[in-house]
Amino acid sequence: MNDLTCIIIGGGHVGLGALKAIKEETRDMSNGRRIRFVLIDKQSGHMRKMLLFRPAVGQEDIMIPWTHYSFSEGVEFVQGTVTSIDSKGKHIQYEDSQGNHARMQYDLLVVAVGSMVRRPDPDQGGIALTDLQTAADIRERWRANLSKAVGQTNSVERKRLMTVAVAGAGISGVETSAELAIEMQKEASSLGLNPSDISVYLLSGQERLFLEGPDRVGRKLEQILSECGVTVLYNRKVMQEEAGLVTLSNGDRLPVGLCVWTIGLIPNPALRTMGLPLTPGGQVLVDECYRVKGASGVYSIGDCARVVDPRNGKADLMRCGEGGLQADRLGKIMMADLEGRSAPVHKSPSSILDFFCIGLGENRGLVWGRKWGLNMIITGKLAWKIRQLAWDAGSKLR
User: How far apart are CA 297 and CA 290, in angstroms?
Assistant: First the structure.
């Protein structure tokens, strides 16, 4: 018998989780046939996307070599970008890292290309935290501004150079603003500047933080951010940053040395060229077992897929936690499909437990959970440790 080829497109948190789950469930075999695994990703290793703010504030390396993982043994890694999927002919077209175009047949295909950070229009200015390069640009910019502030005699200009605006107050914006404030204060102190002159503003278009939970959780989050040195401004969207001035939706202008955009996620735009059925919002249409509609042997999970709980009609959020649970279940689903058994169906994690954890700088964090109508809030070092565990679990380091 010929081998089966299972291709996984995307080596982010969800793709990596899918690879691990499928290999563990199948043990590289199905009905006496060996399964050949191929992982295709544009990166040379696994990028810990949830920690993208870290290179923006420090020098932490968030890339992990594929070979670091024990479950990567025997897996073929291709650095490239898939350009199209022929679900009838069961092959993909891709462009490798050298720009060469190639084709590969598959028997099983998992599409886990995830999401991309939403970008502002080019004329809106600022820097969107989208990848490793923009993270490095952000870090270089704020550090250069603080160096300039050392010799600046004009107090107004010095204050501007020591001010950063973070546009977008989702979890990414909250974590980015907290760590920026802490690291900027440390750098200011080392340069002989007054760390209390550092100003980091978190701009929210909503009336409060953390709309996913109750109001008191948002208030607690704001309190911890204030302790970090972050000022939250509500009902104010950033319209534009130009020449060191941020224009807000209420007409106010805020002098800043840097504006960082963290305005949410969109499904990977590359999906629109792959030939798969998509929702109007750009997510892959799948059934309750993550099978892509009208494409035999093709599955999709994570941010790039519209995954709905058939019991309550609730769609999963674009979060690593949801994607990780989908990946674990996908291994069982694919094994059941290969053996002709009834496969388990998707179940929304929120139907079991609402759970969010947020990192707010070393030894600071907030964890919120809700079960049976009861709310649980954890803060401080324990919350920070839980957040670290979640980051590591997402990257399959635990």
Answer: 10
- Facing residues of 291 across strands? 299
Q: Which pair of tokens denotes residue 106? A: 């598959």
Question: What pLDDT is recorded for position 1?
Answer: 56
Question: Strand, helix or coil at 232?
Answer: strand
Tens digit of pLDDT for each residue in 297-356? 999 999 999 999 999 899 998 988 899 999 999 999 999 999 999 999 999 887 667 899
Burial of 98 (0-12, 13-18, 19+ CB in 10 A): exposed
The predicted-structure confidence for 18-63, as pLDDT tens digits, reads as follows 999 999 999 988 888 999 999 999 999 999 999 999 999 998 999 9
- Is the separation of the CB atoms in 283 and 304 below 8 Å? yes
What span, in angstroms and rounded, lies between the C-alpha atoms of 228 and 222? 10
- Return the SS3 of 28: coil
Three-state DSSP at 162 gives coil
Dihedral (Cα; 201, 207, 210, 214), 10-degree rounding: 140
Q: Are 170 and 260 in contact (CB under 8 A)?
A: no
Separation CA 272–CA 24 (nearest Å)? 31
Mean pLDDT of the chain: 95
Are 177 and 221 a contacting pair, CB within 8 Å? no
Residue partners of 70: CB distance under 8 A and separation at least 6:
none
For the chain, what is the total number of helices (H) and then of strands (E)? 8, 25
